Amino acid sequence: MVGDATDRDVLREAGITDAGTIVLALPDDTAAIYATSPSAN
Predict the structure, then answer these.
(1) Which residues in the chain come in under a pLDDT of 50?
(2) C-alpha dist (Å) from residue 6 to 3, 9, 36
(3) Phi-psi domain of 15 (left: phi exceeds 0; alpha: psi -120 through 50; beta: other)
């Protein structure tokens, strides 16, 4: 799925509530750290 990993609605649509693993393909560590915050909650 392609979408904004910081958008909780996108994460829900992707099935984040049932996910055991999340793979982020981002250009740098700062973006990855920022994107993991909404998925952790």
Answers:
(1) none
(2) 9, 9, 8
(3) left
Alpha carbon distance 41, 4 (integer Å): 16
Question: Model pTM?
Answer: 0.51
Count helices and strands (H / E) in the chain: 2, 0
Joined tokens for residue 17: 């509530």
Residue ranges making up the domain that contains 20:
8-40
Number of domains in the chain: 1
**Residue (of 1, 41, 37, 38) closest to 25 by Cα position:** 1
Residue 16 is assigned to a structural domain of this protein:
yes
